[in-house]
Amino acid sequence: MLGRTGSSALIGTEAFYVEIEVHASGRGEQQFISIVGLPDAAVRESRDRIRAGLQSCGLPQPRGEAVVNLAPADLKKEGGAFDLGIALAMLACQNVLPPQKLAAALVLGELALDGKVRGVRGALPAALLAATNPGVEMLIVPRSNAMEAALGAGDKPVFPVDSLPEAVDFLKNGGGIAPVKAKIEDYYARMPENEPDFSEVKGQYAARRAMEIAAAGGHNSLMIGPPGTGKSMIARRVAGILPPMSLAEVLETSRIHSAVGLLNDGKPLLNRRPFRSPHHTISDAGLIGGRQTPMPGEISLAHNGVLFLDELPEFKRNVLEVLRQPLETGEITIARAAGSCTFPARFMLIAAMNPCPCGMGDPALGCRCKPDERKRYLRKLSGPLLDRIDLHVEVLRLSDAELTAAPSGESSSVIRARVVAAREIQARRFDGTQLYCNAHMTGRELQKYCVIGTSAVALLRQAIERFKLSPRAYDRILRVARTIADLAGDDRISDRHLFEAISYRRGFDEFSAGL
Ligand SMILES: Nc1ncnc2c1ncn2[C@@H]1O[C@H](COP(=O)(O)OP(=O)(O)O)[C@@H](O)[C@H]1O
Ligand SMILES: [Mg+2]
């Protein structure tokens, strides 16, 4: 007596096909269930959930010794998503269900003790797997994951269930449940509504301009200014001026959000770029991803979008240090005892901070911070991290007139159009290379695409000396100047572009001089 069905194991953000086989001896009064195939504690405990679920729903328990095998045997199985599949395979092996129909299904769902089916993590990667697996003819999933699964499952029907008896009835008698239909192309085209918009921001033209440049060239940026000047407000609006995500990007990012359980029927797909704003008390595991179980962290949830680190100096130094690798490579590799795991993590970093511990920044405004306190505050910033931030911009307090006036700035869609045009220039420039935006240019590309005349070189040298910029500022200014020229539609980087690029270094280097 054998029952069998399909399911999916989630390793990081990847789904792997798992075959569930149940063999029951059918002899003896004593009932015993063993689960083999590298189950973790949660999977081993599914025994008890299944037993209780079957009993509460008046469904037969397997008699004698039952062995549940999760194949392939060498793949680790984690979590409760196998419950429903195992329970159904147990019923199939007792001839309660037609075995062929179940064998061609991919089943996901955690069981509650009363036989209700709970939602699971990773329904989207599992559905994407099912879409291309010839052995899978249909999916049976928890209702709360149905939309998400339908978006990934291609032509394969997705049947939502609320409870174990509902799934049993569906497999026994057919019908009763309508497949959930959702086409990813339709969903993708739907523009998000009620997004925060740049037109709501009053004044702050320098910061808005800096964010436009950052978005256009994919540059990381740092806003420095007293509390209440709109830094968080501005950062929150940057994802909305980036170019719309491609379908591939939508899937990449949604897969990550699905793997940590952030998608549901109300939000089955991410069709806008993510904005993640972790609190400064976050651990390095929370930021880059879990080490025990391979779970994506905040930087991967921000993949293809914006990671906002507010109050930058308050983050623990070791937490900021771990950002170096992903900022350079666009992915994060997490070493674990049993091997390593790599997650995508290509995000635009926006950081914000107060100018000093009290936040006022200026004695004229009531700042009483001693020079030592200021120094200590700034020293908390990680040098290598600052090295990867191209733009620094001061955000000043609004004047009373600006505060009381109605906001008068451009809307996000107007800014986005310019960003998209500048990105198109970059796409042509870097066609056939690994690069896609100016922020990632290094030595060779800088020499090729950021040619400036001898007078401009002299000007730049002068600025570096006069404003005490670090020597590495040279490359950064060139990269930003390239983006400013692209925004203007100019092939050549002119002095005007350079001047503006220099202004985005001045603030911080001057302000932190003498550290
Ligand atoms: N430039 C601005 N335009 C419109 N509202 C603003 C502006 N600056 C601040 N505010 C208001 O003050 C609130 C706090 O701003 P916030 O962005 O949190 O400041 P910060 O992050 O610099 O401390 C905002 O929610 C908004 O209502
Ligand atoms: Mg803030």
Report what the structure shows.
The chain is an alpha/beta fold and 515 residues long. It is built from 23 helices and 16 strands. The strands form five sheets. It has a five-stranded parallel beta sheet with strand order 11-12-15-10-16. A hairpin with a 2-residue loop joins strand 1 and strand 2 (14-24). Helix 2 (46-56) packs across helix 3, helix 19 (412-429) packs across helix 22 and helix 22 (473-488) crosses helix 23 (495-511). The termini are far apart.
Features:
five-stranded parallel β-sheet, single chain, about 525 residues, 23 helices, binds magnesium ion, binds adenosine-5'-diphosphate, alpha/beta, four-stranded mixed β-sheet
Quick recap:
The protein has helices spanning 41-44, 46-56, 83-93, 99-103, 123-132, 146-152, 164-173, 184-189, 205-217, 231-236, 247-259, 284-288, 298-301, 317-321, 324-329, 371-379, 383-386, 400-404, 412-429, 443-449, 454-466, 473-488, 495-511; strands at 2-11, 14-24, 32-36, 65-71, 105-107, 110-111, 117-118, 138-142, 158-161, 221-224, 275-276, 306-309, 331-336, 339-344, 348-353, 391-394. The protein is an alpha/beta fold and 515 residues long. The protein starts with a strand and ends with a helix.
What layout of secondary structure does this protein have?
Blueprint: E1 2-11, E2 14-24, E3 32-36, H1 41-44, H2 46-56, E4 65-71, H3 83-93, H4 99-103, E5 105-107, E6 110-111, E7 117-118, H5 123-132, E8 138-142, H6 146-152, E9 158-161, H7 164-173, H8 184-189, H9 205-217, E10 221-224, H10 231-236, H11 247-259, E11 275-276, H12 284-288, H13 298-301, E12 306-309, H14 317-321, H15 324-329, E13 331-336, E14 339-344, E15 348-353, H16 371-379, H17 383-386, E16 391-394, H18 400-404, H19 412-429, H20 443-449, H21 454-466, H22 473-488, H23 495-511
Parallel strand pairs: 3-4, 5-8, 8-9, 10-15, 10-16, 11-12, 12-15
Antiparallel strand pairs: 1-2, 2-4, 6-7, 13-14
Helix pairs in contact: 2-3, 5-6, 9-19, 9-22, 19-22, 22-23
